[in-house]
Amino acid sequence: MKLPIKTSLRHRGKVLGLDKEAEMMTLLDPTGKLLGTVSWESVVDFIQGSVKEARPHKAVRNYPRGRLAAKVRYVTQDQERFDGVTCEIGGGGIFIESYLPPQLGTTLALELILPDDPAPIKAQGKVAWIRPNEERYIFFPGMGVQFTEISEAGRERLVTMVKTLDQEGKGS
């Protein structure tokens, strides 16, 4: 289903595409060029995370996340190999900087190398969302990868790293 944007002056002429089978939303420019893609799950998480409730805030994510530049190697289903850098990690997935990310839904074999930790964390994941362009020179283009398979030990190492980063950020 394609929904033209008519009332938002800033985005007039763009089109939202909804794919109910893949549960994905795309944004197209007036010529039909793909500007970005996001999963419905990410939209729901965003909306739930932005709702101000009277009760104490409850985190939408199952695991904490933090900003960290770490080396990552990934292999696509077509056996294409890439080396990259993360800019966020968490127990549920990572964000990998990339100007040419694979398509949404692509399955990846991952090998994450944390700083000061020589043993790589191996996992499987899928491309859950894509940021195709820089945003305000703050956010890098790339892809959010949701873990589909990761050992509990590997996940615990990631969560421990995030907690350490959080404590360092607070000056503890």
Your description of this structure?
The structure is a single chain. Helix content is 17%, strand content 40%. The protein is built from 2 helices and 11 strands.
Category by helix and strand content: alpha+beta
Number of strands: 11
Using the 3D structure, state the CATH architecture of the largest domain: Beta Barrel
CATH topology of the largest domain: Thrombin, subunit H
Unreliable parts: 52-59
* Spatial strand arrangement across the major sheet: 6-7-8-11-10-9
Q: What characteristic shape results from the CA principal axes?
A: globular
Instruction: Look at the structure and give the mean pLDDT.
Output: 83
* CATH class assignment of the largest domain: Mainly Beta
Beta-strand share of residues: 35-45%
Question: How far is it from the N-terminal to the C-terminal residue, by CA?
Answer: 50 Å
In the CATH hierarchy, what is the superfamily of the largest domain?
predicted glycosyltransferase like domains
Order of helices and strands: EEEEHEEEEEEEH
How many domains is the backbone divided into? 2
Kindly provide the radius of gyration, computed on alpha-carbon positions and rounded to a whole number of angstroms.
Answer: 17 Å
